[in-house]
Prior knowledge:
single chain; 168 residues; alpha+beta; endopeptidase fold (from Nostoc punctiforme); two-stranded antiparallel sheet; signal; thiol protease
Amino acid sequence: MKNYLTLKPSAFYLIAILLFLSSCGSRKYVVKPENKASKAADAMAALKSKDLYRFITDWTGVKYRLGGLDKKGIDCSGFALLLERDIYGRTLPRRSRDQAEAIKKKNQSNLEEGDLIFFSFGGTEVDHVGVYLNNNFFVHASTTRGVVVDDLNLPVYQKAIVKTGTLK
Length: 168
């Protein structure tokens, strides 16, 4: 067995560097899970309506399909229509533009669970709708990700909001 003192100086330095580097990797850092997914999960857990919770989890991930109204694919206005009908017993028109005309305007800071949020991503007319949950989270049928819970504070949504409110 070799004695450390009989090692060549270069081998001794190499061992010392490796020990130093490995000791840095053994430190534990606590990272608070404040990511987007955990915040969306918190918003879901805070829902007052457990029927709404079940409805959203049942539809989450269903792909977007223009004109769709079932689990094979659904668009934003169809999702809002089914949610409002099945959870709140409210009747909405089919198109998001018409849905926007059927609501009583409400300030975004006063939104409550089940209120509607309308967006315009392509100009001045309403072309998207979502349903408010709580803590600035909403559920909608995204054209790229399907039915998802999203953060209303994201700049892409803040820039596009044109109307918020509750069904008349």
